[in-house]
Amino acid sequence: MGRKSVRQAFRVGSDVDLAAIDPRGRPIGPKDKSAAAAELTGLGAQLDDLQEALIAEASGGGPRSVLLVLQGMDTSGKGGVISHVAGLVNPQGLAIASFKRPTPQELAHDFLWRIRKRVPRPGQIGVFDRSHYEDVLVARVDGLVPEEVWRARYDTINAFESELDSQGVAIVKCMLHISPEKQQERLLARLDDPAKRWKYNPSDVDTRLKWPQYAQAYTDALRACTTDAAPWYVIPSDRKWYRNWAIAALLAETLAVMGPRFPKPGFDVKAERARVQAAKI
Amino acid sequence: MGRKSVRQAFRVGSDVDLAAIDPRGRPIGPKDKSAAAAELTGLGAQLDDLQEALIAEASGGGPRSVLLVLQGMDTSGKGGVISHVAGLVNPQGLAIASFKRPTPQELAHDFLWRIRKRVPRPGQIGVFDRSHYEDVLVARVDGLVPEEVWRARYDTINAFESELDSQGVAIVKCMLHISPEKQQERLLARLDDPAKRWKYNPSDVDTRLKWPQYAQAYTDALRACTTDAAPWYVIPSDRKWYRNWAIAALLAETLAVMGPRFPKPGFDVKAERARVQAAKI
After folding, report:
1. Using a CB-CB distance cutoff of 8 angstroms, which residues of chain B are in contact with residue A208?
2. For A272, which of B53, B191, B262 is closest by C-beta distance?
3. Stretch (H or E) spanning A153
4. At residue B236, what are phi and psi to the nearest 5 degrees?
């Protein structure tokens, strides 16, 4: 018996109850910070090798890529994951897209317009820092569109993600699950550290006050859009070391299952060897 | 007396003689691989802090950014620098642009058209994997444009880089200097390792055979375009550990001299502290 799959351990079903998931939980994996650090080093090496094979495969015409979608309340650690997990791989193969409040031009288009432009190309590991899910989260909580509009988006999202899946994009959707107490602690820490203060935005408190509405919107989005083509993973994120380990492990397992392959050379290796050896300068 | 400046140690003047620079040289810095690895860890931490301050400064409206330009013959290590040096910083603040053979659309414009689109935005560390210098290197060696055209480009480049400098872009131009013997060794290694073979391109040998023409084109470009606004650095690159250390040290010194500053908060810290503490969920 091998180790339990990390994908299974974090995957949620269409009956998910966020309130029942402990933000300090540890359903699988290392017991403490030092064990997690040791595992992370190994995962970094694995990710490096797998990513190189993915890039190589694409150089030979392969269509496949990976898309990591990060969602979570302010301070849940989307930036930390990008720095500590995405930072483990070769930046040449990394494509990070940060979706902030849509511009007037973006609002003039369908909500997936700006998203489609940032889908990772073959060989890339794409990271979405927020995503099309904002269009069923903040858009709903702040009443930016009528209910029939955001409600119809669940199906649109599922169709879109299924299309990506069939094109060879392996989608890894992670909800970084923190407690409101941990958010308060982290907001205060940002205010107290002069080197972190620039990350604080007074509007974070306004959003925080809508916590129950966001919890409901997240629950409905997870339930409606956790599919076989693009499952949702809920990552206990009150402890940064656990969150980072979990997402690195999810990425590594996803890539290992994909099994990217080095392409066959499009040239005669022996003949090229001879050419290189003959090319004296 | 502090340590000698790494910028001074690698900077070349308008009389540079590439043939007189040893690709295994070590004008400054660590004596061996293990010393370089230890220094690189410290440089990584420094770069992290300085980059965070640069991003913070830009979030407050500051215009500054860094642009690392990488040029060098095939196998000189442009990709290795991106993976091992650019990989030290937070990928959220990194913008890598790889300039391959221009597309027909790009060729229909001035040679700087595609370059301008990829100039790093405020707060970013941009990396050019090849650059506008290809337009005075391959364009000259392969006779893609008449001599009067490529010759006029030196002035155009100097004016462009001076414009960037005055906009707040700190330009760090590195020529990765390898010997033809080392290139031969690395090309053979790519052919011999099935996991590296995909990086080999038969046209690399054709380019290799034009080594003397490239050496002349590089020399002329370095001489014409090493300016105070955007000096050229020649990095001995036969040893990967030295090359990576040197470029990390150059970047760290450049950022340290820039001295990016955290912006003053645009809100009342005490009042926000009270708001966060009152926001119970």
Report:
1. 276, 279, 281
2. B191
3. helix A147-167
4. -60, 120
- Residue B3 pLDDT more than 90? no
With 0-12 / 13-18 / 19 or more C-beta atoms within 10 angstroms meaning exposed / middle / buried, residue B41 is exposed
Buried b / exposed e across A198-231, counting CB within 10 Å, b at 16+? bbbeeebbebbebbeebeebbebbbbbbbbeebb
State the nearest Cα–Cα gap between B205 and chain A, in angstroms: 6
Nearest partner of A58 among A148, A121, A137, A129, judged by Cα: A121
Q: Which of B188, B198, B281 sits opposite A59 (nearest CB)?
A: B198
pLDDT at A4: 78
For chain B, first and last CA: distance in Å?
A: 57
Burial of B102 (0-12, 13-18, 19+ CB in 10 A): middle
A chain contacts of residue B82, beta-carbon cutoff 8 Å = 90-92
What is the CB neighbour count within 10 angstroms for residue A277? 11
Query: Cβ of B83 and A96 within 8 Å?
Result: no
| pTM metric for this prediction | 0.95
Query: Is it the case that residue B2 has pLDDT exceeding 80?
Result: no
A103, two tokens: 């511009």
In chain A, the residue whose alpha carbon lies closest to the alpha carbon of B277 is: A184
Q: What residues of B are in contact with residue A212 (Cβ under 8 Å)?
A: 281
Please list the residues that pair with A71 across neighbouring strands: A175
pLDDT score at A1: 40
Strand order in the sheet with A125-129: A94-98, A125-129, A65-72, A169-177, A232-236
What residues of B are in contact with residue A273 (Cβ under 8 Å)? 188, 191-192
Q: What is the pLDDT of residues A90-106, one digit of tens each?
A: 999 999 999 999 999 99
| pLDDT tens track for A206-215 | 999 999 999 9
In this structure, what DSSP letter does residue A11 have?
A: B
**pLDDT at residue B47 above 60?**
yes
Q: How many helices (H) and strands (E) does chain B have?
A: 12, 5
With vertex at residue A111, the alpha carbon angle to CA A107 and CA A112, rounded to the nearest 5 degrees, is 135
- Closest Cβ–Cβ partner in A129, A202, A272 for B200: A272
